[in-house]
Amino acid sequence: MSESDAADDADAESDSGDDARPGREIWIEKYRPQRLDEVYGHDDTVDRLQSYIEGNDLPHLLFAGPAGVGKTTCATAIAREVYGDDWRGNFLELNASDERGIDVVRDRIKNFARASFGGHDYRIIFLDEADSLTDDAQSALRRTMEQFSDNTRFILSCNYSSKIIDPIQSRCAVFRFSPLSDDAVAEQTRDIAETEGIELTDDGLDALVYAANGDMRRAINSLQAAATTGDVVDEDAVYLITSTARPEEIESMVTAAVEGDFTQARSKLDSLLTDTGMAGGDIIDQIHRSVWDFELSDRQAVRLMERVGDADYRITEGANEQVQLEALLASLALDSEE
């Protein structure tokens, strides 16, 4: 056997080995629902969208909600159901955060809307992160929506509908996507683990759901990352991969501060920032999520929420994360002495 043949055989073995390992494909795309009835956690929204399609009466749509809850998935699923195999030729997807200027609206959108097409009453233009468009671009978009209303339908996606100008909102059917329920996240995560042949423990599933916080994309990415580290995806693997603190670690830190033991609370905070590698904003988010689960009186919980708000604002404005978090814990410890 020649050296080149041996090298080719080695490459082939390497490729086949790569295919067998988790992580060869991006699971958020591999398991993206293709049809509306495959979307998890938004039954009422899916029913309304399907009624539009069945009645051949699709209006302009505005999807508003946080990341990873199914806005883009629903938009592409609508195109697949309306156009079938021809959906790519009749569906234009743009990301407004990359292309924010008025020229995008005037050029790419208008050229697509004007292009000839056969067999369908309209084409669909999906504008993701539309709240990133400037006011001038949104005004141009409004006029374009009017001009091509006979043969084009727009689907706009945004995190905050308040950043979309009123004339556009009034022309759209607005759908508000809330964070996915824990049951919906757990259901799809469990289904993917079974399909991939991954041993997912109950505490591992609970950790994935907790870390995702309603974001399906984060749950699936975390599952894929954890699956590459070993044969079993358990609680330890998930918290390690996601750099998320266990709920009990957050609780013990806050409880120590509320009881006046600032030194212990500061030590736990330092462990989260250095050993776990968490960002200050993530710690703030976890405290906010869990505050009502702590064994605190109503007054203590309210005081904690007030200080969480102050720290979050200062960190957002660029203040030092560790200083602000230590100040939060210090204020709780001082309250205990009153």
From TrEMBL:
**Residues annotated as region Disordered?**
1-24
Spell out the SUPFAM superfamilies in the cross-references.
P-loop containing nucleoside triphosphate hydrolases, post-AAA+ oligomerization domain-like
Parts forming coiled coils: none
The record's annotation in CDD domains points to:
AAA (cd00009), HLD_clamp_RFC (cd18140)
User: In which residue ranges is the amino acid composition biased (Acidic residues)?
Assistant: 1-17
Question: Which terms does the record give in the GO molecular function aspect?
Answer: ATP binding; DNA clamp loader activity
Q: Which residues bind ATP?
A: 65-72
Record flagged with keyword Nucleotide-binding: yes
Which keywords belong to this entry?
ATP-binding, DNA replication, Nucleotide-binding
| GO terms under biological process | DNA replication
InterPro entries with a match to the protein in the record: AAA+_ATPase, ATPase_AAA_core, DNA_pol3_clamp-load_cplx_C, DNA_Rep/Repair_Clamp_Loader, P-loop_NTPase, Rep_factor-C_ssu_arc, Rep_factorC_C, RFC_lid
SMART domains, alphabetically? AAA (SM00382)
Q: Could you tell me which residue ranges the AAA+ ATPase domain spans?
A: 57-181
Per the record, a Pfam family? Answer: Rep_fac_C
* Family named by the database record: Belongs to the activator 1 small subunits family. RfcS subfamily.
Q: What does this protein do?
A: Part of the RFC clamp loader complex which loads the PCNA sliding clamp onto DNA.
Please report the name of this protein according to its UniProt entry: Replication factor C small subunit
The species is: Halobium palmae
